Amino acid sequence: MILCSDPKKQYLVYRKPIREAIQRVLDSGWYILGNEVKSFEAEFAKYIGVKEAVGVGSGTEALHLALVACGIGKGDEVITVAHTAVATVAAIELTGATPVFVDIEPEFYTIDPKKIQAAITERTKAIIPVHMYGQSAEMGAILEIAKANKFKVIEDCAQAHGALYKGKRVGSLGEMGCFSFYPTKNLGAIGDGGMVVTNNPDLAKQVRLLREYGWAERYVSHVSGWNSRLDEIQAAVLRVKLKHLNKDNAKRVRLAKKYTKELKDLPFKLPRQREGCVPVHHLYVARTEDRNALLSFVKERKVGALIHYPVPIHQQPAYTKFKRSDLPETEKAAKEILSLPMYPELSESDFKKIIKAIKEFFQG
């Protein structure tokens, strides 16, 4: 089976330095919040172009702690999208706040700035734009709305490590940016991990308190906090992979161009690039009204395409309390999108098998 993503193949490419990094941690005897985390935080902050980075336990926790650090809590509302991983909304719920869903731009699958104004109430405190599939949301318009209404903007960058919006890395544009290092991400660990980045040292200080019980000094809690720490082994692995992130993203870009070249004459709606932006193609998501039949067809031919995401959050059983009826583009996309295999190590022979299977479906 040709998988939609294959983190093992990336491990095999970098196996020697990864094993050396893990052994370094094991030999050090320091396994939580040591030199590896501190060094990775500094290196990642430099890469994103921000002053501060704080390693946490997961991408969900990055969003959760960022929201809490910004003062978001019970009674507040946070505007975001229903076309995203559940983690985005789970983080909002963890604070006690209420997610308010806005429809997406059909060309880019990110929040539609033109729909935000109608969702604003006196309880709105923040916006979480999700940089979907490796491409930035329209941050200029979003930041203007936030500034006019004195909202916080917390970027969900879980699928967009290294993506650019008008020359700036995503994560550096709002008050805070939140990253996941789940193994299938563009920058993936060998377990869970996350990062909060910001140019605000006070917010960074607050996240550091929140990630470890509110401790300013050991065993003394100055605020109510949690246990959400990026561990030393994951940080060491991520330090290895960060050195290669731009190169691996470039491979994704080249692969996306190959897909577009091969599929452009088929009845597919292919990914578009936002003007002034550089996507990193976490996923290559095409669109067709025959999606379900195509998915079954290619799976029979051992091509592991997937749907990101098949059920919008507002239609999922756990979140019907937030259900809205004005998300037509979100609901339409969920019925038509298909994620094709996309990772830097995808071989030429596997790529040809994928293209062959898709063309057989459409052309017979």
Kindly identify the CATH topology of the largest domain. Answer: Aspartate Aminotransferase, domain 2
Ranges where pLDDT stays below 50 over 5 or more residues in a row are none
- Specify the CATH class of the largest domain: Alpha Beta
State the helix count. 12
Radius of gyration: 20 Å
Instruction: Output the helix-strand order.
Output: HHHEHEHEEHEEEEEHEEHHEEHHEH
The main sheet comes to: 7 strands, mixed
Strand content: 5-15%
Characterise this structure.
The protein has 364 residues and is an alpha/beta fold. The protein folds into two domains: 7-102 and 109-242, Aspartate Aminotransferase, domain 2 (3-Layer(aba) Sandwich); 245-363, Aspartate Aminotransferase, domain 1. It is built from twelve helices and 14 strands. The strands form four sheets. It has a seven-stranded mixed sheet with strand order 1-9-8-5-4-2-3, with helices on both faces. β2 (77-81), α5 and β3 (98-102) form a beta-alpha-beta unit. The longest helix has 19 residues, at 245-263. The chain is globular and about 70 Å long.
Short summary of the structure?
With 364 residues, the protein is an alpha/beta fold.
Question: What brief labels describe this structure?
Answer:
364 residues; Aspartate Aminotransferase, domain 2; three-stranded antiparallel beta sheet; seven-stranded mixed beta sheet; alpha/beta; 12 helices; Aspartate Aminotransferase, domain 1
